[in-house]
Write a structure and sequence with these properties.
- The protein is an alpha/beta fold.
- The protein folds into two domains: 42-87 and 209-277 and 401-474, FAD/NAD(P)-binding domain; 140-203 and 280-398, D-Amino Acid Oxidase, subunit A, domain 2 (D-Amino Acid Oxidase, Chain A, domain 2).
- Helices cover 31% and strands 21% of the residues.
- It has helices at residues 50-65, 100-107, 109-133, 151-167, 169-174, 183-190, 208-221, 349-352, 365-376, 429-446, 451-460, 469-473, 479-482, 495-507, and strands spanning 40-46, 72-75, 91-92, 140-148, 178-180, 197-205, 225-227, 234-237, 245-249, 252-261, 278-288, 306-312, 315-321, 336-339, 388-399, 405-408, 415-419.
- The strands form two sheets. Strands 3, 4, 5, 6, 11, 12, 13, 14 and 15 form a nine-stranded mixed beta sheet that branches. Strands 1, 2, 7, 8, 9, 10, 16 and 17 form an eight-stranded mixed beta sheet that branches.
- β8 (234-237) and β9 (245-249) form a beta hairpin.
- The protein is globular and about 70 Å long.
- The two termini are 26 Å apart.
- 53% of the residues are buried.
- Bound molecules: flavin-adenine dinucleotide.
- Flavin-adenine dinucleotide (FAD) binds at residues 10-11, 46-52, 75-78, 81-85, 87-91, 231-232, 262-266, 269-270, 283-285, 318, 339, 394-396, 419, 421, 423-427, 509.
- InterPro entries: FAD-dep_OxRdtase (IPR006076), FAD/NAD-bd_sf (IPR036188).
- Residues 42-432 form the FAD dependent oxidoreductase domain.
- It comes from Kwoniella bestiolae CBS 10118.
């Protein structure tokens, strides 16, 4: 069940078809493991995107390690995995230094470094997971190139790089970052015209929908009950089962001791406390067939790297070149996925901010994407539509301070949130979901979260991600200001916040 233009924050009907949804999972798409909604569970997971899927996967593994059999139900408002995970850029790009100085000024060097090393770890976590479970999701480990087009952005990026390198030389060396100052060399290496500074580092890309649905299949094999088309409408403390939560859906209620909220942009739809914390923000992406000039055997040949095109603060396009289909690189589909186009719509607030209409196109995005490859790629000889195939929209969950909220909700024992990825979920979700799962497993095993489990959680996650009382009750909203749309904060910005939000938004996709 989903709805059209109403005030309820649920996924809308008739959403645009993304490239990734062109191969839906016929078994899971509309699955209900049991025809009736179960009346109770140990854990209810709300949402079946990559976050929900990874949490389900980790939970069954963690529970088995402590010898617990668990009963987990996953509730999904629409088709399985039909939100941002099915509409994104497929790009796992752990950004290794942009924003470092600002975070260091606000939180200290160690925390600033933690934020970056946390993202970097995700690449190996995906690769290990895909290999261990033999998941067919077209995972490809490669290098990303960030290309700056403005001297001011280049200067700022260089300073961030130097500052982190001076403070944490081993971490920077471990991330294998290479920088290029010479525009000619940059063009030769990347095939991109007009850049003035570039940095490359390891990154990856994959088919996010296939990864998520594969993990859900594995969890179902261990006992997960998936209920699609079952939106959570509200939740409250159970009046009949002490210490439990009752989750209401149009198909009846389900009671559980632990609820894990993995509904990203839509979280405040049933948890109103998140109304000032997580906002639906609309973004767009497209798929492109390589032009003859960028196909195998041609010159310059296939696009090799993944990219971040940095046009200005907050204005970034992102791109991956798919490397074929299945387990044999080079064979089959080689679509290029390109997202961003922010310059077309950022000035018109209602087009993106607090907007959940991914059944509609973003104005100007199609034309922008159609002109993109010819404008930026040397020798591109595509057709008059820039070889663009599909264009779609998607709803990102932007958090008020531009970082995810991860942890137990301060005034709701047993309710956990893992959401607000602010357009940069891929490098964050593996670590965040593993941390949440171990916290919940401690609660399942002991009836409470042990101090050891709490410490392990805090050690595993960068401190600015923790869902603290302070963040939970904060009224500061940095989103519009971060997008260059005036100071719309409800609270006063500290001086350093301006720089912090510039760095955080440089990592976000929209
Ligand atoms: C256009 C676009 C491009 C992007 N590009 C990138 C990229 O290249 N790299 C990157 O790192 N990130 C990117 N992102 C962000 C990334 O997709 C997200 O961070 C990530 O997918 C979030 O996963 P999730 O599972 O938390 O949320 P989602 O995938 O949105 O899943 C949430 C699920 O919860 C369900 N739900 C919502 N409300 C309810 C309810 N009341 N009851 C039950 N279920 C509910 C939804 O239907 C949905 O299936 C992009 C996002 C978009 C939209």
């Amino acid at each position: 069940m989903s709805e059209g233009k109403s005030n309820t924050l649920l996924p809308v009907k008739n959403r645009l078809e993304s490239f990734w949804l062109s191969e839906r999972d016929p078994v899971l798409q509309n699955a209900r493991t049991t025809p009736e909604l179960p009346r109770n569970a140990d854990v209810v997971i709300v949402g079946s995107g990559l976050t929900g899927a990874m949490i389900a996967y980790h939970l069954y593994n963690d529970a088995a390690k402590v010898g617990k059999r668990i009963n987990v139900v996953m509730l999904e408002a629409d088709e399985v995995c039909s939100g941002a995970t099915a509409r994104n850029g497929g790009h796992c790009k752990p950004i290794p230094f942009i924003g470092y100085r600002a975070e260091a000024a606000k939180h200290g060097k160690k925390v600033a470094n933690d934020l970056l090393t946390f993202e970097a770890a995700a690449l190996k976590q995906y690769a290990d997971l895909v290999q261990k479970e033999d998941i067919n999701c077209d995972m490809h480990v490669t290098r990303a190139f960030d290309v700056c087009f403005k001297q001011s952005d280049a200067a700022s990026a260089k300073q961030d790089y130097q500052a982190r390198k001076a403070a944490f030389p081993r971490d920077v060396a471990g991330q294998d970052i290479r920088t290029i100052d010479d525009p000619k060399e940059l063009e030769l290496l990347t095939g991109v015209k007009g850049g003035c500074y570039g940095a490359s580092y390891p990154a990856g890309h994959l088919w996010p929908y296939k990864l998520a649905t594969s993990l859900i299949h594995i969890a179902i094999g261990k006992g997960l009950n998936l209920q699609t088309h079952t939106p959570v409408l509200s939740m409250k403390k159970s009046e009949t089962h002490s210490g439990q939560w009752e989750v209401a859906t149009p198909r009846g209620s389900i009671t559980a001791s632990q609820i894990i909220v993995a509904s990203n942009a839509y979280t405040s739809g049933f948890l109103p406390e998140f109304k000032d914390l997580i906002f639906p923000v609309r973004g767009t992406a497209c798929s492109i067939t390589p032009a003859p000039s960028h196909s195998y055997g041609a010159h310059p040949g296939p696009v090799k790297y993944t990219y971040g095109f940095r046009h200005g603060p907050g204005e970034v396009d992102y791109m991956i070149p798919r490397q074929g289909r299945g387990r044999v690189p080079g064979l089959g589909d080689r679509s290029i996925i390109l997202g961003g186009a922010k310059g077309c719509f950022l000035g018109e607030l209602s087009q993106w901010y607090d907007n959940k209409q991914d059944n509609e196109y973003m104005p100007g995005a199609k034309e922008y994407f159609e002109g993109f490859m010819k404008k930026y790629f040397v020798g591109w000889n595509g057709n008059e539509h820039g070889n663009v195939d599909k264009v779609w929209s998607g709803i990102l969950g932007y958090s008020a301070d531009l970082l995810p909220y991860v942890g137990e909700v301060p005034d709701k024992p047993g309710v956990f949130v893992c959401a607000g990825f602010t357009g940069h979920g891929m490098p964050r979700i593996p670590g965040c979901t593993a941390a949440i799962s171990s916290l919940v497993t401690s609660r399942i095993k002991n009836g409470f979260i042990t101090s050891t489990a709490q410490k392990a959680f805090e050690d595993a996650l960068p401190q600015p991600y923790w869902l603290t009382q302070e963040r939970y009750t904060s009224k500061v909203n940095l989103i519009k200001a971060a997008m260059g749309q005036g100071d719309n904060t409800k609270g006063a910005l500290q001086n350093s916040d301006e720089a912090v939000l510039a760095g955080r938004v440089a990592r976000a996709k929209l």
